[in-house]
Amino acid sequence: MDLCREIRANPQNKNASIILLTAKSEIETKVMGFAAGADDYIPKPVDPLEIKARIAVQLRHQEQNNSWNHRERSQQRR
Predict the structure, then answer these.
(1) How far apart are CA 69 and CA 48, in angstroms?
(2) What is the pLDDT of residues 2-50, one digit of tens each?
(3) Radius of gyration for the chain, computed over Cα atoms and rounded to the nearest angstrom
(4) Any alpha helices (H) in 11-47, and if so which ranges?
(5) At 71, phi and psi to the nearest 5?
(6) Nearest-angstrom CA–CA distance, 24 and 16
(7) φ and ψ at residue 42, rounded to 5 degrees
């Protein structure tokens, strides 16, 4: 969790997606992970196809955010 907070504290990482892959599956641990800045939390064991799908979702979200931010900046310049 400390590493997650450290990554989030760096402004250069503000758009980085953080996916935690861990053997801990207790709800309290998941909530702590999200509170530390994680975008997703995957408890083990996990199928590689699920990991691939979750990464694809994060990449799609980043793409959508980038597109939205670009449109917003364009409208502000007008």
Answers:
(1) 32
(2) 999 999 999 999 889 999 999 999 999 999 999 999 999 999 999 999 9
(3) 15
(4) 27-35
(5) -65, -40
(6) 23
(7) -120, 115
* DSSP letter (8 states) at residue 37: T
Written as six digits, the tokens of 36 are 């530390």
Task: Say what the pLDDT of residue 54 is.
Answer: 97
Where helices occur in 1-78 by DSSP H, the ranges are 2-9, 27-35, 48-77
Q: At a CB cut-off of 8 Å and minimum separation 6, what does 20 contact? A: 4, 33, 38, 40, 41, 42
Q: What is the pLDDT of residue 41?
A: 96
Which residue shows structure tokens 């953080």? 18
Q: Tokens in use for 55?
A: 């990464």
Contact between 58 and 19 (Cβ < 8 Å)? yes
Amino acid at 78: R
Q: What's this model's pTM, rounded to 2 decimal places?
A: 0.80
